[in-house]
Amino acid sequence: MAPSFEDGNSVFEFVVRRGNGVKGLVDSGLSKVPEAYVQPPKERIDKENTVKHGLPPIDLSKLDGFSPDHDEVVDQIVKAAETLGFFQVVNHGVPLHLLESLKDTAHYFFSLPPQRKAVYRSDVSPSPLVKYGTSFMPEKEKALEWKDYILMQYTNDDEALQHWPQEIKGVLLEYLRSSIGMVKKLLQVLLGNFGIKPDDPMIDVLIGKKMLSMNFYPACPNPDLTVGVGRHSDMGTLTVLLQDGIGGLYVKMEQDIDYGKKGDWIEIPPTPNALVINVGDMLQILSNGKYKSAEHRVRTTSTSSRVSIPIFTMPRETTKIVPLPQVVEKDGTALYREFVLIDYMKNFFGNAHEGKKSLDFAQINPT
């Protein structure tokens, strides 16, 4: 007989404190979602009332300066950042065999015995560079997210090889190495739109810190009652995301565009061989609101477990962030104040997900 988890405290103890994760709940023979995971009706994802993102992925091979389509691709990237804040890319330079290996490796890692993963819980992890956990901020959430994860901070190759879990460090380092050139190209395009030169040292500053995560969303007996990840925007500069073929990523429209209207939720369907790119809060702030760090969330499914593997790029903690002066001069006013990134991070990681509320920390006149 499957154990009962009717009491929220018993769920918290089993899943969080013991490090069993959501996968441990499912493996125990769970037949219905415990109350601790049941989201308020307004937070649930109604997949029948969402819009499919119909735009084709952007072909980054055409960013080559000799391509006749170069300027068109630049316009596509800028428009996507200004409107939805999300877009998909192909011919991105990340080996396709690596994408498949990443997904297989994620499934393998989360299939390991609980005690192997639990050694990386934040309260016992042998390294501050590695954290295994569940949900986002379990202690502060009204309802838990149906997700387990392993999060790694990148400082340098030597420390990653020393401290990251043996089972995943090789493939994750290759993923990071092969992606970072693409991120630089995208930033060169997006900042070039404001007159910043491709060799400006600011580009390296904006991606001085990297974090990688492997996320695991176990099959859920009641997906309509839960979320894999609640509504939020990403904190950093740009995020690179590998989805598997199952899907479940939804983005909120901030304004009316060709295929949806403000307030709609748009599904970003899995596209073979593509990576998802999204704008983070830092890029929205630097652009004085021109680029959108779109609010997004993840749905669960009852059919099979899902994985995703993001790379989060951001400035280092001591970096001062402020809207670009040339953009503020053109706009006539700054929408965001100057701050040091570490203060933004403390606020972001100190609260449960709540849409784009994290940006209130920096807004001069928050709405």
Automatic annotation (TrEMBL):
It comes from the Eukaryota. Belongs to the iron/ascorbate-dependent oxidoreductase family. Keywords: Dioxygenase, Iron, Metal-binding, Oxidoreductase. The lineage of its organism: Eukaryota, Viridiplantae, Streptophyta, Embryophyta, Tracheophyta. It comes from Gossypium tomentosum (Hawaiian cotton). Pfam families: 2OG-FeII_Oxy, DIOX_N. Its cofactor is L-ascorbate. One of its GO terms (biological process) is coumarin biosynthetic process. GO terms for molecular function: dioxygenase activity; metal ion binding. Residues 202-315 form the Fe2OG dioxygenase domain. InterPro entries: DIOX_N (IPR026992), IPNS-like_FE2OG_OXY (IPR044861), IPNS-like_sf (IPR027443), Oxoglu/Fe-dep_dioxygenase_dom (IPR005123). This is Fe2OG dioxygenase domain-containing protein.
